[in-house]
Write a structure and sequence with these properties.
Helices cover 41% and strands 11% of the residues. By secondary structure, the protein is α/β, with parallel strands linked by helices. The N and C termini lie close together (11 Å). The structure holds xylulose-1,5-bisphosphate and magnesium ion (MG). The site of magnesium ion (MG) has 7 residues, from loops.
Length: 265
Amino acid sequence: MENHTLSALLFDVDGTLADTERDGHRIAFNAAFQEHGLDWNWDVALYGKLLEVTGGKERIRHFVDHFLPDYAPPKDFSDLVTLLHRSKTRHYTHLLEHGRIPLRPGVARLLDEARAAGLRLAIATTTTPENVTALLRYSLSDNAENWFELIAAGDIVPAKKPAPDIYLWTLQRMNLPATACFAFEDSANGLRSSLGAGISTLVTVNDYTRDQDFSGASAVVSDLGEPGRPVAVLDGRLPGQEHVTLETVRALHEAAQRVRPSNKT
Ligand code: XBP
Ligand code: MG
């Protein structure tokens, strides 16, 4: 029989747990370019365009293909991308280690609530695994990695978001139907991925994603909020609270199950 009880919360990382893109990944990409003697510079606006493509290695290739008409890639361009990306990961985790990127409002609180309630937790992201562990360790808690039974990340599936693969892989590994889960995303690419896997999803927007198309989301909010720091609801309804609590999530999950056209996962 289909499991409609909420058993697990699945979290995207970049933009959802923390605002990592503008002041984290972008800075690290630029540092890597500089380290390799390249005069490429991704400013805030250009990076917004490049975010259309998920995955750092894929983003570098996309940049070269679409924004550098006069650049003739060397024969060993694949190796260069690998090197640049490795260097970028080093710079990025260094930034995290020095506490440059705080978690978004309500993230630590909701994780605490979920853990206290015995819900299962997992990460589903396109970013590199070591970026996830560094963020959890330095921005949340030394042992936060252990709070998640699964960290699904990076190249573990060949097709990154917006493909549903990373979420489908997560469901399979956790042996759960989509109906037993609820996801948190910040971007249209992420939402397409989670919805593509059949998982109801709450979107918390950020400056890069605010104007994207979030059709199909359970609700779209400014952030998860905190007591006394209410969220702005951009689409849908937030049952009960002024900020997103576990009770809110349960209500959104239940409402999503009621409107499902069939009981498919
Ligand atoms: C995140 C990404 C990642 C990061 C960079 O998307 O697209 O590529 O920007 O990380 P999402 P890597 O939040 O939808 O998972 O360089 O490690 O790929
Ligand atoms: Mg994201």
